[in-house]
Amino acid sequence: MGEELNVISININGLNSAKKRRKILGKLCKEKTDIISLQEIHIQKSDEKYLEYPKLGKLFTSPADKKKKKGIAVYIREEIKTKLVFVDPNGRILMLEIWLPHKKVLFAFIYAPNEKQQEFYKNLHEKIVEFEQKNVCIIGDFNAIMAYRRDYKGEKREKKRILPKACLEMFK
Description:
This protein has four helices and eight strands.
């Protein structure tokens, strides 16, 4: 493995349906990826077994705490050394340490809420700081945009949520 990683991140909007699960996970098997992050899986802890798909790699989850809500699933290619370091009980954050050839990186996989984002990002930042890592990668559904003008072109313009200050401060 070189310094580059092939990553896919998708808000899946539920994987409770066996048919949808087979279709999506089957398609992902055809991709040449190192990391796959799925947000909004809607799978509870008791049903995690349905997400096991060895062809996709090692499975890590932050399951939904309620049916039809939240949840994250992450697949890491088998050859990549990985350690699970944090799972949010609300199905919103999953953190892994991943060893690349010349460095260790803290990956934070997120599914941000629509409401109370300022609080969510403040808590995420505090959790990241706890690990004292200088190499950090945040992947997932931020449920917001960086800048309205840069994210929307053309005629269709809907009002979308701008990333809160607490999120932007993490990147300083």
